[in-house]
Amino acid sequence: MRVNQMRLVVEVEDYDAAVAFFRDALGLTEEAAFSGGGDERVMILEAGRATLELANPAHHRYIDEVEVGRPAAPRFRIAFEVDDTTAGTAELVDAGAEQVAPPTETPWRSLNSRLDAPGDLHITLFQELDAQPPHSPPPATAQ
């Protein structure tokens, strides 16, 4: 079997606000939109390359500590690579996101911010600071 696409499906109470945030403010490209009987609506947004990052609880806590300074993320978090984390964070806050943590340089040389977005989604914006970004953050070391 070969997987050709990963799609994250999210049920959102305020569909219009979520579309305005993710399509219009974050700039994801509308791939398709459908409506059905009653009030059924769905929009598929293209977000560039998709990856699935599996993290054990210890690593999950470590990333929260680095990016936020405390436990912050629910079990699921969506990360978006952007060209400018600082400007992107400001734009998304203006579009209705709540900033959880400001842009922070990580030990693996990326600039990451955390936001709570419409649809009850916890997101990270990240900007790689080096020309050749690492494939994953270095493992946490015991202090």
From TrEMBL:
<protein>
    <recommendedName>
        <fullName>VOC domain-containing protein</fullName>
    </recommendedName>
</protein>
<dbReference type="InterPro" id="IPR029068">
    <property type="entry name" value="Glyas_Bleomycin-R_OHBP_Dase"/>
</dbReference>
<dbReference type="InterPro" id="IPR037523">
    <property type="entry name" value="VOC_core"/>
</dbReference>
<feature type="domain" description="VOC">
    <location>
        <begin position="2"/>
        <end position="128"/>
    </location>
</feature>
<dbReference type="Pfam" id="PF00903">
    <property type="entry name" value="Glyoxalase"/>
</dbReference>
<dbReference type="InterPro" id="IPR004360">
    <property type="entry name" value="Glyas_Fos-R_dOase_dom"/>
</dbReference>
